[in-house]
Amino acid sequence: MSNGAIAQYLEELARELRLNSAPRRRLLAEATDHLCSSAAELRASGLAQEEAERAAVARFGNAAEVALSFARAAASASARTALAWAATAWAAYGLASGVFILAAPGWLRDFPQGAPSMIALQVGLVALSVSTLRARRLRGSLFDEPRLRLVARGGLVASLALALAAAGELVLALARPAPAPWSEAGGVIGAYAVAAVAALAAAGLALATHARVRALRRRQHGSGDELAPAAAALVDDVANLAPALRRLVAAAVSRPLLACLAVAGAAFLAVALAELSGGNEGQASPLFAAAATGSFEAGAVVVSYLTLARPLGLRPQR
Amino acid sequence: MEAALKGQLELLLLAALREEPRHGYAIVKDLRERSAGELDVFEGTLYPALHRLERAGLVASRWSAAAGRRRRVYQLTRKGSKALVERESEWRRLVRALEAVLGGTV
After folding, report:
1. In chain B, which residue's Cα lies nearest the Cα of A138?
2. pLDDT the model gives residue B72
3. Given an 8 Å threshold on Cβ–Cβ distance, is A77 in contact with B47?
Protein backbone atom coordinates (compact mmCIF):
# COMPACT_ATOMS: atom_id res chain seq x y z
CA MET A 1 0.00 0.00 0.00
CA SER A 2 1.37 3.39 -0.95
CA ASN A 3 1.01 6.76 0.74
CA GLY A 4 -0.44 8.32 -2.36
CA ALA A 5 -3.90 9.22 -3.53
CA ILE A 6 -5.39 5.86 -2.53
CA ALA A 7 -4.24 6.07 1.07
CA GLN A 8 -5.53 9.62 1.36
CA TYR A 9 -8.87 8.63 -0.13
CA LEU A 10 -9.29 5.69 2.25
CA GLU A 11 -8.59 7.96 5.21
CA GLU A 12 -11.24 10.38 3.98
CA LEU A 13 -13.73 7.56 3.41
CA ALA A 14 -13.14 6.22 6.93
CA ARG A 15 -13.82 9.71 8.31
CA GLU A 16 -16.96 10.17 6.23
CA LEU A 17 -18.44 6.82 7.22
CA ARG A 18 -18.72 8.06 10.83
CA LEU A 19 -19.68 4.75 12.34
CA ASN A 20 -17.56 2.13 13.86
CA SER A 21 -18.88 -1.26 12.97
CA ALA A 22 -18.18 -4.47 11.11
CA PRO A 23 -20.02 -3.36 7.92
CA ARG A 24 -17.91 -0.20 7.85
CA ARG A 25 -14.68 -2.16 8.18
CA ARG A 26 -15.84 -4.46 5.46
CA LEU A 27 -16.64 -1.57 3.14
CA LEU A 28 -13.17 -0.13 3.78
CA ALA A 29 -11.52 -3.49 3.07
CA GLU A 30 -13.47 -3.83 -0.15
CA ALA A 31 -12.62 -0.28 -1.20
CA THR A 32 -8.93 -0.94 -0.52
CA ASP A 33 -8.90 -4.04 -2.68
CA HIS A 34 -10.92 -2.37 -5.39
CA LEU A 35 -8.68 0.70 -5.61
CA CYS A 36 -5.50 -1.37 -5.61
CA SER A 37 -6.82 -3.67 -8.37
CA SER A 38 -7.99 -0.71 -10.39
CA ALA A 39 -4.66 1.13 -10.01
CA ALA A 40 -2.68 -2.00 -10.87
CA GLU A 41 -4.63 -2.43 -14.06
CA LEU A 42 -4.20 1.22 -15.04
CA ARG A 43 -0.48 0.96 -14.34
CA ALA A 44 -0.27 -2.12 -16.56
CA SER A 45 -1.86 -0.09 -19.33
CA GLY A 46 1.01 2.37 -19.13
CA LEU A 47 0.17 5.01 -16.49
CA ALA A 48 2.69 6.05 -13.84
CA GLN A 49 1.98 4.91 -10.26
CA GLU A 50 0.74 8.26 -9.04
CA GLU A 51 -1.42 8.91 -12.08
CA ALA A 52 -2.89 5.42 -11.87
CA GLU A 53 -3.86 5.94 -8.22
CA ARG A 54 -5.47 9.28 -8.94
CA ALA A 55 -7.46 7.84 -11.83
CA ALA A 56 -8.60 4.87 -9.71
CA VAL A 57 -9.79 7.21 -6.96
CA ALA A 58 -11.63 9.43 -9.47
CA ARG A 59 -13.47 6.42 -10.85
CA PHE A 60 -14.44 5.24 -7.40
CA GLY A 61 -16.35 8.46 -6.79
CA ASN A 62 -16.56 11.13 -4.14
CA ALA A 63 -15.96 9.74 -0.62
CA ALA A 64 -18.84 11.72 0.88
CA GLU A 65 -21.19 10.34 -1.74
CA VAL A 66 -20.10 6.74 -1.19
CA ALA A 67 -20.48 7.19 2.57
CA LEU A 68 -23.91 8.75 2.08
CA SER A 69 -25.26 5.89 0.03
CA PHE A 70 -23.84 3.50 2.63
CA ALA A 71 -25.58 5.47 5.40
CA ARG A 72 -28.84 5.45 3.47
CA ALA A 73 -28.73 1.66 3.13
CA ALA A 74 -27.86 1.29 6.82
CA ALA A 75 -30.75 3.57 7.83
CA SER A 76 -33.21 1.55 5.72
CA ALA A 77 -32.08 -1.69 7.34
CA SER A 78 -32.20 -0.18 10.79
CA ALA A 79 -35.73 1.17 10.20
CA ARG A 80 -36.85 -2.31 9.18
CA THR A 81 -35.31 -3.87 12.29
CA ALA A 82 -36.81 -1.21 14.56
CA LEU A 83 -40.22 -1.82 13.01
CA ALA A 84 -39.92 -5.58 13.57
CA TRP A 85 -38.99 -4.96 17.22
CA ALA A 86 -41.91 -2.58 17.68
CA ALA A 87 -44.24 -5.24 16.26
CA THR A 88 -42.76 -7.84 18.62
CA ALA A 89 -43.20 -5.48 21.58
CA TRP A 90 -46.79 -4.85 20.48
CA ALA A 91 -47.49 -8.59 20.38
CA ALA A 92 -45.92 -9.06 23.82
CA TYR A 93 -47.98 -6.20 25.21
CA GLY A 94 -51.13 -7.56 23.60
CA LEU A 95 -50.41 -10.91 25.23
CA ALA A 96 -49.93 -9.24 28.62
CA SER A 97 -53.24 -7.45 28.19
CA GLY A 98 -54.83 -10.77 27.28
CA VAL A 99 -53.47 -12.26 30.50
CA PHE A 100 -54.88 -9.25 32.33
CA ILE A 101 -58.34 -9.74 30.84
CA LEU A 102 -58.37 -13.49 31.52
CA ALA A 103 -56.57 -13.78 34.83
CA ALA A 104 -56.59 -10.49 36.70
CA PRO A 105 -58.39 -10.60 40.05
CA GLY A 106 -61.53 -8.47 40.28
CA TRP A 107 -60.05 -5.72 42.43
CA LEU A 108 -57.33 -5.12 39.80
CA ARG A 109 -59.75 -4.92 36.94
CA ASP A 110 -61.72 -1.91 38.10
CA PHE A 111 -61.37 1.22 36.03
CA PRO A 112 -58.92 2.82 35.18
CA GLN A 113 -56.35 0.01 35.63
CA GLY A 114 -55.76 -1.38 32.14
CA ALA A 115 -56.94 1.74 30.31
CA PRO A 116 -53.46 3.08 29.32
CA SER A 117 -52.62 -0.33 27.85
CA MET A 118 -55.78 -0.45 25.76
CA ILE A 119 -55.16 3.03 24.37
CA ALA A 120 -51.49 2.29 23.65
CA LEU A 121 -52.37 -0.96 21.90
CA GLN A 122 -54.78 0.86 19.61
CA VAL A 123 -52.37 3.70 18.85
CA GLY A 124 -49.59 1.17 18.30
CA LEU A 125 -51.74 -0.88 15.95
CA VAL A 126 -52.46 2.13 13.74
CA ALA A 127 -48.79 3.24 13.72
CA LEU A 128 -47.56 -0.27 12.94
CA SER A 129 -50.15 -0.82 10.21
CA VAL A 130 -49.27 2.42 8.44
CA SER A 131 -45.52 1.70 8.62
CA THR A 132 -45.74 -1.98 7.77
CA LEU A 133 -47.82 -1.16 4.73
CA ARG A 134 -44.97 1.05 3.55
CA ALA A 135 -42.14 -1.27 4.49
CA ARG A 136 -43.85 -4.23 2.86
CA ARG A 137 -44.19 -2.69 -0.54
CA LEU A 138 -40.50 -2.18 -0.98
CA ARG A 139 -39.44 -5.81 -0.91
CA GLY A 140 -36.03 -5.41 0.60
CA SER A 141 -34.80 -2.54 -1.49
CA LEU A 142 -33.93 0.93 -0.39
CA PHE A 143 -36.60 3.18 1.11
CA ASP A 144 -37.15 6.48 -0.60
CA GLU A 145 -36.94 9.33 1.80
CA PRO A 146 -40.55 10.01 2.81
CA ARG A 147 -41.07 6.29 3.36
CA LEU A 148 -37.88 5.87 5.35
CA ARG A 149 -38.93 8.66 7.68
CA LEU A 150 -42.46 7.33 8.07
CA VAL A 151 -41.35 3.78 8.74
CA ALA A 152 -38.91 5.09 11.36
CA ARG A 153 -41.62 7.24 12.94
CA GLY A 154 -44.17 4.44 12.96
CA GLY A 155 -41.83 2.20 14.97
CA LEU A 156 -41.07 5.10 17.29
CA VAL A 157 -44.71 6.04 17.90
CA ALA A 158 -45.77 2.43 18.53
CA SER A 159 -42.95 1.54 20.90
CA LEU A 160 -43.11 4.84 22.81
CA ALA A 161 -46.88 4.47 23.23
CA LEU A 162 -46.35 1.00 24.74
CA ALA A 163 -43.50 2.14 26.99
CA LEU A 164 -45.59 5.10 28.22
CA ALA A 165 -48.57 2.80 28.82
CA ALA A 166 -46.38 0.50 30.94
CA ALA A 167 -45.26 3.55 32.93
CA GLY A 168 -48.89 4.68 33.21
CA GLU A 169 -49.97 1.30 34.59
CA LEU A 170 -47.19 1.48 37.14
CA VAL A 171 -48.27 4.97 38.26
CA LEU A 172 -51.91 3.84 38.53
CA ALA A 173 -50.87 0.80 40.55
CA LEU A 174 -48.83 2.91 42.96
CA ALA A 175 -51.62 5.48 43.25
CA ARG A 176 -54.16 2.98 44.56
CA PRO A 177 -55.61 4.36 47.78
CA ALA A 178 -55.77 1.12 49.75
CA PRO A 179 -52.91 -1.37 50.00
CA ALA A 180 -53.59 -3.97 47.33
CA PRO A 181 -52.96 -7.73 47.66
CA TRP A 182 -50.38 -7.73 44.85
CA SER A 183 -49.29 -11.28 45.55
CA GLU A 184 -52.59 -12.44 44.02
CA ALA A 185 -51.68 -10.85 40.69
CA GLY A 186 -48.21 -12.30 40.13
CA GLY A 187 -48.94 -13.65 36.64
CA VAL A 188 -50.37 -10.37 35.42
CA ILE A 189 -47.48 -8.35 36.85
CA GLY A 190 -44.93 -10.73 35.30
CA ALA A 191 -46.58 -10.53 31.87
CA TYR A 192 -46.63 -6.72 32.00
CA ALA A 193 -43.00 -6.62 33.14
CA VAL A 194 -41.88 -8.72 30.15
CA ALA A 195 -43.96 -6.57 27.79
CA ALA A 196 -42.56 -3.37 29.32
CA VAL A 197 -38.97 -4.56 28.82
CA ALA A 198 -39.75 -5.44 25.18
CA ALA A 199 -41.37 -2.01 24.67
CA LEU A 200 -38.35 -0.24 26.19
CA ALA A 201 -35.91 -2.19 24.00
CA ALA A 202 -38.01 -1.42 20.92
CA ALA A 203 -38.22 2.26 21.89
CA GLY A 204 -34.43 2.44 22.30
CA LEU A 205 -33.88 0.92 18.89
CA ALA A 206 -36.54 3.18 17.33
CA LEU A 207 -34.92 6.27 18.88
CA ALA A 208 -31.52 5.25 17.52
CA THR A 209 -33.05 4.72 14.08
CA HIS A 210 -34.82 8.05 14.25
CA ALA A 211 -31.54 9.80 15.10
CA ARG A 212 -29.83 8.02 12.24
CA VAL A 213 -32.53 9.08 9.77
CA ARG A 214 -32.33 12.68 10.98
CA ALA A 215 -28.56 12.70 10.61
CA LEU A 216 -28.97 11.33 7.12
CA ARG A 217 -31.38 14.12 6.24
CA ARG A 218 -29.05 16.78 7.57
CA ARG A 219 -26.27 15.34 5.50
CA GLN A 220 -28.41 15.15 2.42
CA HIS A 221 -29.91 18.60 2.31
CA GLY A 222 -29.35 20.54 5.45
CA SER A 223 -33.05 20.89 6.19
CA GLY A 224 -36.20 18.83 5.86
CA ASP A 225 -38.18 18.58 2.68
CA GLU A 226 -41.90 18.24 2.99
CA LEU A 227 -43.94 15.18 3.70
CA ALA A 228 -46.73 16.35 1.41
CA PRO A 229 -46.59 13.24 -0.79
CA ALA A 230 -46.95 11.05 2.31
CA ALA A 231 -50.74 11.01 2.31
CA ALA A 232 -50.77 10.25 -1.41
CA ALA A 233 -48.23 7.47 -0.82
CA LEU A 234 -50.55 5.96 1.78
CA VAL A 235 -53.43 5.89 -0.70
CA ASP A 236 -51.09 4.21 -3.20
CA ASP A 237 -49.97 1.62 -0.67
CA VAL A 238 -53.53 0.73 0.28
CA ALA A 239 -54.65 0.56 -3.34
CA ASN A 240 -51.80 -1.80 -4.05
CA LEU A 241 -52.93 -4.12 -1.29
CA ALA A 242 -56.70 -3.86 -1.76
CA PRO A 243 -57.79 -1.97 -4.88
CA ALA A 244 -61.40 -1.88 -3.70
CA LEU A 245 -60.43 0.32 -0.76
CA ARG A 246 -58.70 2.99 -2.83
CA ARG A 247 -61.69 5.34 -3.07
CA LEU A 248 -62.57 4.99 0.58
CA VAL A 249 -59.03 5.75 1.74
CA ALA A 250 -58.60 8.55 -0.78
CA ALA A 251 -61.81 10.13 0.54
CA ALA A 252 -60.68 9.70 4.15
CA VAL A 253 -57.26 11.22 3.45
CA SER A 254 -58.73 14.18 1.59
CA ARG A 255 -61.04 15.00 4.54
CA PRO A 256 -59.02 13.67 7.46
CA LEU A 257 -60.79 15.45 10.31
CA LEU A 258 -64.20 14.32 9.11
CA ALA A 259 -62.94 10.76 8.74
CA CYS A 260 -61.51 10.88 12.26
CA LEU A 261 -64.82 12.10 13.68
CA ALA A 262 -66.66 9.31 11.86
CA VAL A 263 -64.28 6.74 13.35
CA ALA A 264 -64.71 8.32 16.79
CA GLY A 265 -68.50 8.17 16.45
CA ALA A 266 -68.36 4.52 15.38
CA ALA A 267 -66.04 3.76 18.30
CA PHE A 268 -68.47 5.48 20.69
CA LEU A 269 -71.41 3.43 19.43
CA ALA A 270 -69.50 0.13 19.38
CA VAL A 271 -68.05 0.52 22.87
CA ALA A 272 -71.29 1.82 24.38
CA LEU A 273 -73.30 -1.05 22.86
CA ALA A 274 -70.73 -3.62 23.99
CA GLU A 275 -70.85 -2.18 27.49
CA LEU A 276 -74.66 -2.30 27.56
CA SER A 277 -74.90 -5.83 26.24
CA GLY A 278 -72.22 -6.92 28.72
CA GLY A 279 -74.86 -6.30 31.40
CA ASN A 280 -72.87 -4.90 34.30
CA GLU A 281 -75.29 -5.77 37.06
CA GLY A 282 -75.24 -3.85 40.24
CA GLN A 283 -74.17 -0.69 38.46
CA ALA A 284 -76.28 2.35 39.40
CA SER A 285 -76.84 3.54 35.84
CA PRO A 286 -75.71 1.20 33.07
CA LEU A 287 -76.69 3.73 30.41
CA PHE A 288 -74.52 6.41 31.97
CA ALA A 289 -71.57 4.02 32.39
CA ALA A 290 -71.87 2.93 28.74
CA ALA A 291 -71.94 6.54 27.56
CA ALA A 292 -68.92 7.41 29.71
CA THR A 293 -66.80 4.51 28.38
CA GLY A 294 -67.93 5.24 24.81
CA SER A 295 -67.03 8.91 25.12
CA PHE A 296 -63.68 7.99 26.58
CA GLU A 297 -62.96 5.77 23.57
CA ALA A 298 -64.14 8.41 21.10
CA GLY A 299 -62.02 11.02 22.89
CA ALA A 300 -58.97 8.76 22.67
CA VAL A 301 -59.49 8.44 18.90
CA VAL A 302 -59.68 12.22 18.44
CA VAL A 303 -56.67 12.93 20.70
CA SER A 304 -54.61 10.24 18.92
CA TYR A 305 -55.51 11.80 15.60
CA LEU A 306 -54.56 15.30 16.69
CA THR A 307 -51.21 14.23 18.12
CA LEU A 308 -50.16 11.43 15.80
CA ALA A 309 -51.69 11.98 12.38
CA ARG A 310 -49.01 14.38 11.22
CA PRO A 311 -45.97 12.34 12.25
CA LEU A 312 -47.55 9.29 10.63
CA GLY A 313 -48.36 11.11 7.40
CA LEU A 314 -52.12 10.56 7.70
CA ARG A 315 -52.60 14.32 7.65
CA PRO A 316 -50.62 16.46 5.19
CA GLN A 317 -47.90 18.66 6.64
CA ARG A 318 -48.55 22.31 7.30
CA MET B 1 -27.85 8.67 -18.18
CA GLU B 2 -26.55 8.66 -14.63
CA ALA B 3 -29.98 9.44 -13.10
CA ALA B 4 -31.71 6.80 -15.21
CA LEU B 5 -29.06 4.31 -14.18
CA LYS B 6 -29.45 4.96 -10.47
CA GLY B 7 -32.80 3.20 -10.19
CA GLN B 8 -31.55 0.19 -12.14
CA LEU B 9 -28.28 -0.39 -10.31
CA GLU B 10 -29.72 -3.32 -8.38
CA LEU B 11 -30.94 -4.99 -11.55
CA LEU B 12 -27.52 -4.52 -13.17
CA LEU B 13 -25.75 -5.99 -10.15
CA LEU B 14 -28.02 -9.02 -10.06
CA ALA B 15 -27.49 -9.50 -13.81
CA ALA B 16 -23.72 -9.23 -13.45
CA LEU B 17 -23.83 -12.12 -10.95
CA ARG B 18 -26.04 -14.33 -13.09
CA GLU B 19 -23.29 -16.47 -14.58
CA GLU B 20 -20.86 -16.81 -11.72
CA PRO B 21 -19.91 -15.42 -8.31
CA ARG B 22 -17.81 -12.26 -8.60
CA HIS B 23 -16.08 -9.70 -6.43
CA GLY B 24 -16.86 -5.99 -6.69
CA TYR B 25 -14.07 -5.03 -9.03
CA ALA B 26 -14.91 -7.87 -11.42
CA ILE B 27 -18.54 -6.69 -11.48
CA VAL B 28 -17.45 -3.18 -12.47
CA LYS B 29 -15.23 -4.51 -15.21
CA ASP B 30 -18.01 -6.74 -16.48
CA LEU B 31 -20.50 -3.85 -16.59
CA ARG B 32 -18.00 -1.60 -18.34
CA GLU B 33 -17.03 -4.18 -20.93
CA ARG B 34 -20.52 -5.43 -21.70
CA SER B 35 -21.89 -1.92 -22.10
CA ALA B 36 -18.86 -0.82 -24.17
CA GLY B 37 -18.12 1.91 -21.63
CA GLU B 38 -21.65 3.35 -21.64
CA LEU B 39 -22.36 2.17 -18.11
CA ASP B 40 -19.54 3.86 -16.29
CA VAL B 41 -20.98 3.95 -12.77
CA PHE B 42 -19.18 5.57 -9.89
CA GLU B 43 -17.57 2.42 -8.70
CA GLY B 44 -17.76 3.23 -4.99
CA THR B 45 -21.56 3.30 -4.88
CA LEU B 46 -21.57 -0.31 -5.97
CA TYR B 47 -20.59 -1.61 -2.54
CA PRO B 48 -23.37 -0.04 -0.49
CA ALA B 49 -25.77 -1.44 -3.11
CA LEU B 50 -24.23 -4.92 -2.81
CA HIS B 51 -24.47 -4.77 1.00
CA ARG B 52 -28.10 -3.78 0.64
CA LEU B 53 -28.85 -6.69 -1.69
CA GLU B 54 -27.18 -8.99 0.80
CA ARG B 55 -29.30 -7.68 3.67
CA ALA B 56 -32.37 -8.29 1.53
CA GLY B 57 -31.21 -11.87 1.00
CA LEU B 58 -30.79 -11.52 -2.76
CA VAL B 59 -27.03 -12.14 -2.75
CA ALA B 60 -24.68 -13.91 -0.34
CA SER B 61 -21.02 -13.12 0.15
CA ARG B 62 -17.88 -14.62 1.63
CA TRP B 63 -14.21 -13.73 1.90
CA SER B 64 -11.94 -15.53 -0.50
CA ALA B 65 -8.18 -15.41 -0.56
CA ALA B 66 -6.92 -15.53 -4.11
CA ALA B 67 -3.41 -14.54 -5.19
CA GLY B 68 -2.58 -13.38 -1.67
CA ARG B 69 -5.52 -10.97 -1.60
CA ARG B 70 -8.61 -11.09 0.59
CA ARG B 71 -11.65 -10.38 -1.48
CA ARG B 72 -15.35 -10.39 -0.79
CA VAL B 73 -17.04 -12.57 -3.40
CA TYR B 74 -20.77 -12.17 -4.07
CA GLN B 75 -23.15 -14.69 -5.50
CA LEU B 76 -26.86 -14.83 -6.25
CA THR B 77 -29.11 -16.64 -3.81
CA ARG B 78 -32.17 -18.52 -4.97
CA LYS B 79 -34.29 -15.55 -3.93
CA GLY B 80 -31.92 -13.31 -5.89
CA SER B 81 -32.28 -15.39 -9.06
CA LYS B 82 -36.03 -15.16 -8.78
CA ALA B 83 -35.88 -11.41 -8.21
CA LEU B 84 -33.60 -11.05 -11.23
CA VAL B 85 -36.09 -12.83 -13.50
CA GLU B 86 -38.95 -10.69 -12.18
CA ARG B 87 -37.17 -7.36 -12.42
CA GLU B 88 -35.77 -8.18 -15.83
CA SER B 89 -39.19 -8.89 -17.29
CA GLU B 90 -40.56 -5.73 -15.61
CA TRP B 91 -37.77 -3.76 -17.24
CA ARG B 92 -38.33 -5.30 -20.66
CA ARG B 93 -42.02 -4.48 -20.46
CA LEU B 94 -41.18 -0.88 -19.64
CA VAL B 95 -38.70 -0.61 -22.51
CA ARG B 96 -41.22 -2.09 -24.96
CA ALA B 97 -43.86 0.39 -23.82
CA LEU B 98 -41.45 3.32 -24.12
CA GLU B 99 -40.41 2.26 -27.59
CA ALA B 100 -44.01 1.89 -28.67
CA VAL B 101 -44.70 5.46 -27.53
CA LEU B 102 -41.53 6.95 -28.94
CA GLY B 103 -42.16 5.13 -32.19
CA GLY B 104 -39.86 5.74 -35.12
CA THR B 105 -37.93 8.52 -33.44
CA VAL B 106 -35.52 6.06 -31.80
Report:
1. B56
2. 92
3. no
